[in-house]
Amino acid sequence: MPENLARQGVIQNQTADILAALGTRAIVLVGMMGSGKSTVGRRLAARLRLPFVDADQEIETRHGGMTITEIFATHGEPYFREGEAKVISALLDGGAQVLATGGGAFVRDDTRERIRSKAVSIWLKADGATVLRRVKRRSDRPLLQTEDPAATIERLIAAREPFYSLADLTIVSRDVPHERIVDECIEALHGFLCAAAPVAFANKT
User: Fold this and answer.
1) Are residues 199 and 169 in contact, defined by beta-carbon separation less than 8 angstroms?
2) Which residues contact 182 (CB under 8 A, 6 or more apart)?
3) Which of 51, 70, 102, 197 could be stapled to 66 by a disulfide with Cβ–Cβ 3.0 to 4.6 Å?
């Protein structure tokens, strides 16, 4: 029991430190579809007592409830990417929050620079097998509507990882309890914001 109380005290102190250092900046989660941005993001926001915003959901709301897949099919990917950039830019003006972005958002130069100036970015790094296992049963991923989703995922990872690697922090997304990933996000944010020491977590067992 004393150890648990001590751990809770450390977590509370880390949270207070992070919020003080964060100020009006957002925490932005980037990475591939299926990397856990929304799931981890909600839990991270709850831990920090910050609002959670999902950029894809905001885009759907601003399109009268159309799904991302429907927007892609109706208007095409260039239209979607342009609108996505505008939505993220507007959301970043909303102050401290946890913001989950779509898989392609951080690839765009202007969006990436906007995030850099207004937020702290965390790359949830997931390998192809993990991504495929998490998304293969879902039909709401327009870029995976191909004959070989596994090959498509590997192609997207290869194209996007050079951009994802520019994020401030890297956390390996893997099949462990979500709270463990949140713990690692908290530790990384504390190190980055309060000790001026960027942290990248290797895969842990």
Assistant:
1) yes
2) 40, 43, 44, 47
3) 70
- For residues 26 and 97, the answer to whether their CB atoms sit within 8 Å is yes
Half-sphere exposure (Cβ direction) of 93: Cα atoms closer than 13 Å:
5
Question: Is the Cβ–Cβ distance between 120 and 28 less than 8 Å?
Answer: yes
Q: Which two tokens stand for residue 40?
A: 């981890």
The residue ranges of DSSP E strands in 24-142, in sequence order, are 26-30, 52-54, 98-100, 119-125
Task: Provide the 8-state DSSP code for 34.
Answer: T
Tokens representing residue 167 in the block = 């994020």
Q: Determine the Cα–Cα distance for residues 85 and 108; give it in Å rounded to an integer.
A: 8
Question: Considering the entire predicted model, what is its pTM?
Answer: 0.86
Model pLDDT for residues 21-77, shown as the tens digit of each residue: 999 999 999 999 999 999 999 999 999 999 999 999 999 999 888 988 889 889 988
What distance in Å separates the CA atoms of residue 92 and residue 110, rounded to the nearest whole number? 13
- Fill in the amino acid letter for 116: R
Compute CA distances 68 → 62, 64, 92, 100, 174, whole Å.
Answer: 11, 11, 20, 15, 25
Measured distance between the N- and C-terminal CA atoms of the chain, rounded to whole angstroms: 25
